[in-house]
Amino acid sequence: MKDSTAVPSDFSLEEWIHNPLKDAEITQDFLIQDWMENSEDKSKSFDKLDRTYEEVEEIYEIEWVNEQLGEQKALTLKQRKILGNLYYYWRSYKDSREQGGEVYNHVPCRTKIQGRSPDVAYITPQLLKHFGELEVFPQSFPLVAEVASPTDLAEELIAKSHEYLRSGSEEVWLIFPENRWIIIITENQRLVFTSGDIVYTQRLLNGFSIGVDELLG
Fold this sequence. Notes:
36% of the residues lie in helices and 25% in strands. It is α+β, with helices and mostly antiparallel strands. It is globular and about 40 Å long.
C-alpha cells in the first residue's frame, strides 16, 4: 500500500528487523518533533498534538523501504473486508485440508534489502519448522497477497510482487478492489481473474479456489 510518510532515515533495516514492534513509537516521536520544529501557530498546540496522535493511531503497518522507515496509512473498510475474507478463506482451507503451516496478516518479512509487511501471507509447515516463530521472517513468505489502496499504482504493486518473488515467494496475489481484478504472479506465469471468474492458487495451498465476487464481496 502506498500513501506513506517518511520518518527518520537513520533508522536502519537491521533495527527494523530486530525490533519492528517499536516502529509506531519512533514514528510518533518523529511526527511530534516535526510539528514542534515547523508549526507556526503554537496557540493551537493541543489541537495539533491531538491530531498528530490520531495520525499515529491510524498507522496500519510500517515498512522499511529505500533505506528509510515509512508509515502506512489505514486501509479503507472495503480493503479491510477483503483482507479479512482472504485471511479467513486461506486459513480455513489450510485447517480443513490439514496442510499445515500458518496464515498471517500484516506480518513483517525481509525482502533482501527491504523490510515489508504483506497484507496476507502463508508460510509452509517446512519453513515454519525451520525458522520457528520469529519477530521478522528472514525472507519473503511463499504465498503473499497485497490489497491495492486507492492511491496504489499498479506498476508499483507489480514491482513489489517481483521483489517478493526474488526473495523467496513462489506466488503473489495482487487484488484490485475497484477494478475487481485479481492478478496472480509466479516465476513463469501472469494470470488475471475478473468478476465472474473462479480464482485459484497455483503453487501453495494446493486446490484452493474461490469466486472473485465472493472474495471481493
